[in-house]
Design goal:
180 residues; Chromate transporter; chromate transmembrane transporter activity; Chromate_transpt; CHR_Transporter; cell membrane
Length: 180
């Protein structure tokens, strides 16, 4: 029960203090899960993020679920998911009750505008720290693919599907070479 509560509370704090969506949660998840709690090794976290991005749903919730599952199977997944979702749910519910009356307030508007640069920084931070675990070739490929998506307006889903196919073929070729 203590471990369940620990997972719930860790992700509740992350959900409570993160603004800007799922990508903004990643540096906090990384700090809590890898550095503070040591639940997942650095290299596994990159794989976990890749998996979380590849399946349907918000990346932060998927990351929380996969982390919780790795720690305590289904109970851990549920604890992590509830911890990550409840703060947003409670905050959005509270805001919805009186947002219309304060939206035109210049202080509220300025606060939202002031948060934008911080959200961008929160999104860029994990990209930089996660790139340390990648080789130069992988970084170059990632930058080229990002450029293709941006300039040619290619679908990221298409890029992910092609990447998954290439990865499967690559691994099968390596396994085949190892077999006598």
């Amino acid at each position: 029960m203590k471990q369940w509560w620990e997972i719930f509370w860790s992700f509740f704090k992350i959900g409570l203090f993160t603004f800007g969506g799922g990508y903004a949660m990643i540096p906090l998840i990384e700090q809590e899960v890898i550095k503070k709690r040591r639940w997942i090794p650095d290299d596994e976290f990159l794989d976990l993020l890749t998996l979380a991005q590849s399946v349907p749903g918000p990346i932060a919730i998927n990351t929380a679920v996969f982390t919780g599952y790795k720690r305590l199977k289904m109970r851990g997944a549920i604890a992590a998911m509830l911890g990550a979702v409840l703060p947003s749910f409670i905050i959005i519910l509270a805001i919805a009750l009186f947002f219309a009356s304060i939206r035109q307030n210049h202080i509220v508007d300025a606060a939202f505008k002031g948060m934008r640069p911080a959200v961008v920084a929160l999104i860029i931070t994990p990209l930089i720290s996660l790139s340390r675990g990648m080789g130069k070739a992988a970084i170059i490929i990632a930058l080229l693919l990002a450029g293709l998506i941006w300039w040619l307006r290619l679908s990221p889903v298409l890029i992910l599907a092609v990447g998954a196919g290439v990865g499967i073929v690559w691994e099968l070729a390596i396994v085949k070479k190892r077999q006598p």
